Amino acid sequence: MITESNLVEASVTNTIGAIVLNNPGKHNALSKELIDGICSVLEQMQQQEVRVVILRARAGSTVFSAGHDIRELPTNGRDPLTYDDPLRRVIRTIEHFPAPVIAMIEGSVWGGACELVMSCDIIVAGDDTTFAITTAKLGVPYNISGIQNFLNTGGMPLCKEMLFTAQPISVSRLLARGIVSHAVPRDQLQSLTQTIARQIAANSPLVVSLLKEELRLLSASHNLGPETFERVQAMRRQVYDSADYQEGIRSFFEKRAPSFQRQ
Predict the structure, then answer these.
(1) Is the pLDDT of residue 65 over 90?
(2) Which residues are catalytic?
(3) Phi, psi (rounded to 5 degrees) for 66
(4) pLDDT-derived band at 78, boundaries 50, 70, 90
(5) CA 31 from chain center: how many Å?
(6) Are 134 and 114 in contact (CB under 8 A)?
(7) Can you tell me the distance from the alpha carbon of 174 to that of 126, in angstroms, rounded to the nearest whole number?
(8) Which of 77, 158, 201, 219 could form a disulfide with 51 if both were Cys (CB 3.0 to 4.6 A apart)?
(9) CB neighbour burial string for 123-134, b if at least 16 within 10 angstroms, e if fewer
C-alpha cells in the first residue's frame, strides 16, 4: 500500500511503479507539496523493492509540468535554488533511486521540469512534445548543479541555446541528440513505455541498480576516489554473491526466462 499526496497518484503492478502528477489546475507546477509527494512515494517504492518507475502526467495532458512553482520563489533577494530547494531534492532523489525511472512525457515541459525529466534514466515522449528552459525570461538565476546537469545531458551548444533563448525546443531535436530515447505518436506512448518497463523489470534488479550507480558516477566526470571505488566494488561483489547471479546463469543454460528476486 502506497500513501499518496493530494497532488500525486501512485500505484505498483508486478514490481512496476507508476507516479502520476495530478495538479492539472496549476499545470503540475513543481510546488513543494507536489515534490514532497514524489519523494515520499519514491521512498515507499524503494522499500517495496520496485524494479522500475514510470513518472508521468495524467493521460491527455497538454502540459507535463510548468516547472518550478513561481509563487514559491523568494522575493527578498535570497538565492531561489539552494541545495535544499525542493527541486534540487527531487533531482537527487531520482538520481539516487536504486531502480530506473522512466519519464513518460505528454505535453510541453517547462523550466525546472526539464531538469526533472532529464534526471530520469529513460525519456519516452509524444512526438509533439516541446521543452523550454525559461529562467532567462523570468530573471531567475539557475544554480550551478542544475546547469551541470543540463550540460551532461544535452551538451554545450544545445544547452546554451535553450538557456539563452528561453524558447521551446522540439522533441525531434532532443531525439537526434540522444537526450530522448523515443518520440512516438501519443496513442503509442503508453504501450511503448510499458514494454520498456517490463523489459527492465524482468532483469536482475541487483545488476540494474549497480549499472545505474556506475553510470551516475561516470557521468559526473569525477575521478573515483578510493572510497567510492571500494563502494562500487562492494556492490559488484553483492551481485556475484547473490541468488540472482546464479539464477541468471542457470536460466541461460536451461533456455528459459529468469526469475529474479531482489535480496
Answers:
(1) yes
(2) 68, 112, 142
(3) -80, 0
(4) low
(5) 17
(6) no
(7) 12
(8) 201
(9) bbbbeebbbbbb
Of the candidates 174, 186, 195, the one whose C-alpha atom is nearest the C-alpha of residue 52 is 195
What number of CA atoms fall less than 13 Å from residue 48's CA on the CB side? 22
Q: Give the pLDDT band of residue 222 (cuts 50, 70, 90).
A: low
pLDDT for residue 212 is more than 60 = yes
Q: Cα separations (Å) of 104 from 69, 128, 153? A: 21, 13, 17
Q: How confident is the model at residue 1 (pLDDT cuts 50, 70, 90)?
A: low
Q: What amino acid occupies position 180?
A: V
Task: Report helix, strand or coil for 196.
Answer: helix
Smallest Cα–Cα separation from 201: which of 121, 241, 259, 243? 259
Instruction: Classify strands 52-57 and 8-13 as parallel, antiparallel or unpaired.
Output: unpaired
As beta bridge partners, residue 248 has: none
pLDDT, mean of residues 125-140? 88
Which has the closest alpha carbon to 159: 140, 181, 174, 143? 174
Model pTM?
0.88
- Find the helix or strand (DSSP H, E) in which 10 lies: strand 8-13
